[in-house]
Every structure is written in C-alpha cells, then in structure tokens.
Design a protein that fits this description.
4 strands
Amino acid sequence: MGFFDFLFGHKAKKIQQFKDRDAVILDVRTKEEYANGAIPGSMHIPVQQVEDRIEELKRLDRPIITCCASGIRSGRAVKILEKHGVEATNGGGWLSLQKKL
C-alpha cells in the first residue's frame, strides 16, 4: 500500500463509516456555487455561517460530512464543528465526494 493509498483509503473508509451512520452532507460553499450544482439532499450553510448556526447543526444529532469546492473550506468547517462537540469529517470537494457516496 502506497502513501497516497493509505491517506485516501483512510478518508474513504471514514466517509463510508459516517454514511453508514446516516451522516448529513453539509456543503459549505457560497450560495452561488451551491446553486450551480450540489450533492442531492445535501444541506447548505456557507462556512462563514457555520458557527452562527451551530445549535441547528447540533440538533440534527447525526455525524456531518462537510464538502466544498476543494476541501479547504470544508476543513475549516470541520474544525468549527468539532470545537462545538459535533462529530464531523472533511469530505473534500463536492464532486469527488459525490462519487464516493
């Protein structure tokens, strides 16, 4: 197993584990980006609003898989969610995440 297989295989496994537990897909891109294409059934909250809407996300009582265009903003969203006790993982770019789902 190569280094990249280790990294990306682990990520795919974690995403599958979250999916098996009925995870919410949270798209943290801008309104315009989301309107131009998104994972069907995903929830949309721009990364700048995640902290302000943390109670709404906590009430879901489900793990969260974040996504954006490349994985950078979704990584920031995971840090915010985890800081508030929400179980989350970074799904990366929404197009690649959609293929894993």
